[in-house]
Amino acid sequence: MAPETRRQITDLRALRALADPIRYRILGHLMAVGPQTASQCAAIVGATASNCSYHLRELERYGLVERVAAGDGDGRERPWRPTATGFSYGLPEEEQTDPVAARVARQLLHAGVDDEAGLAHAAIERHDAWPPAWQQAETMATYGLLIDPAELIALTTAIDALIRPYIGLTREDAPAEARPVHVGFSAFRNPEA
Length: 193
What we know:
The protein is mainly alpha-helical.
């Protein structure tokens, strides 16, 4: 199995760069399917290849992606890959009260929620086109839990441990029928309760 490399992003400039919805989607796509060219990313995010090249260079500037070493060929068609198998982010303690930093952190969270919703809507629209085994395997469930903060930490830690062996960028023992699958998980205090 390839080693898992998770990075904590705390640089406000890197967080601001990642909060751009196109960049967020590009990075998510690379983490889901592995190395891709700017043209391949463009087909997924609905942008031009030159626009994706710009966004990939911005992600590279902050160490979030890198070019895959390649021999011959057009530089525009060289693939890019993420520099880690997972990212988490948060501001250093001294910046947590800075209103600009807090706004950037919220933008990044909103980009993640919007991307998650977009993927879920696309999956719903494509559901009938998938083979029956994939149709039956899909799930979109929500739960209303009654739980305290310590229990929530224990629950999310346990779920993370269950998911981690299946990360696409590190899994080498996947069955032949394996395909990229998106698993999103949010857990937060219900703002309406």
